[in-house]
Design a protein that fits this description.
single chain; mainly alpha; Helix Hairpins; 0% strand
Length: 103
């Protein structure tokens, strides 16, 4: 499944230089970081609402949220692999302990 993330990562990066009239991703970049952040919040809210609906709706909204998070990361030149590395580094540490270590 990592392959789909690699493919998306490549497309998202390529669309940075596309015409915003021709590419949804390019239009997000053109509107800037605040707009992209607002889309992430919007998609997160839709995911929460989907939990009151069907499993298919949860899956659909999760995909939308993940997509917009990937766009947000790319807008800051952060590769999704860095997030996977961060998650990997947390294995063996309880969530409670990890939160304590943030402070």
């Amino acid at each position: 499944m990592k392959d789909i993330l690699d493919r998306l990562d490549k497309i998202i990066e390529e669309r940075k230089s596309s015409n915003p009239k021709d590419s949804y991703i390019a239009s997000l970049y053109k509107k800037g970081n605040n707009h992209i952040c607002n889309k992430v919040v919007e998609e997160a809210s839709e995911l929460v609402e989907a939990t009151r609906q069907s499993e298919n709706q949860i899956i659909h909204e999760s995909a939308d949220l993940l997509f917009h998070v990937l766009v947000l990361l790319a807008s800051h030149d952060i590769k999704y692999v860095r997030i996977l590395e961060e998650l990997e580094s947390r294995f063996g540490t309880s969530g409670i302990e990890e939160k304590k270590n943030r402070k």
